[in-house]
Amino acid sequence: MFNQTFSQRSRVKMFDRTKPNVKTFQKFFNYHKRILIQSQIFGLVSFTCTNQHFRSSKRQKLWIVALILIYLSLTGYVIYAHFRGQVEKDTIPKISNIIILSCCSLYVSTIWLTSFFNGEKIGDFLQKVVIFDDKVQLESARYHKTQKRILVHMVGRFVFLTFYISYFLFMDFATKTVVIILTESCAYVLLVMNSVMCHQAGELILMLRDRFKVLNKSLDVLIRHYSSNINVILKKKPPLMALNTICTLHHHLSKLIKIFNEIFGVVLLFMFGVSFIVIVLALFFTSGELQRPGGIKWLDVFYMLMTCVSFVIDTVYMCDVCYSTIQEASKSGELIHKIETEEHDLIDEIEMFSLQIANEQVEFNAAGFFPINYTLVFSIIGGVTTYIIILIQLSATLRE
Question: Which of 22, 141, 289, 333 has the fewest beta carbons under 10 Å from its own?
Fold first, then answer.
């Protein structure tokens, strides 16, 4: 048992040091270049792609620094204008806008700072995904599905954001002051960056889910193989080696989940926090608008609901991809016990694989504060409901 464990660790180390094949790397890049180019445009990565690896780029880092300085200057001026009362005179709307703008600047800056300082880690993450593809010889059909999914998500987000921003930015444009336009621009930048960040993080998670599916499919093949030879003690070793390989690859993907948490944990924490604040305030002002004595402004109601819908969709999307990926990773632990065999070596490998999955206990989390799954969605729903009731009661008291 000790020799098997030692050999497995040696294979894992050798696996991490292996470089991917040039053709595999180029295939991976060609099918994922849309999401990589989008990330470069919006400053979500600080590297460029070469023939066989991802290399840190000074030009990309300068672009990220420029984006941070421009956005912080813009939000700083707008927050100062709100303190001066140039936008809102009422206390509650003014304080709410200042809170949202402060969260905007902190959240968006965190996204860019993460890509600036963790650029090498993101490149290493993608490099290890390519190594996995090289080891299993991932078929082109899965790359085609990934490319189609990226295109559909990208087009859907682009159409929604374009309609939303263009409609509300140019509505009553002549009556808007410069400060109001800048305030709305800060909010639109938050909306776009949140959508792009969720798309990038979601695709990285889905990369892992697709590859866990490949491993589970290989386990299904082993199950069918041993079911057809249930009374035969096989002397050939390929199935045993296949299970060793699956075990090593599963451990490799589990480590990538931990790397993902190290890179995006803080960003996801801010994402859920800002989404919670925006959803609460949007629904609160919607309820206030519906109780307006002088008549309801349906355009304002529609504007606030559309803002709320965008953050709700991204929140549920992130929880869904994280939950489905962990479910796919845990499925391997169920499948290996369906292998029926009388080989003692193979039984030992199954027990080791089972212990490996149990000890790793992988999960996606927001900087270790809470796991990201459907439980988080229900917690957000309960929190939003509670705080809306509190704010409505508080506003009624202030009016009195």
Answer: 141
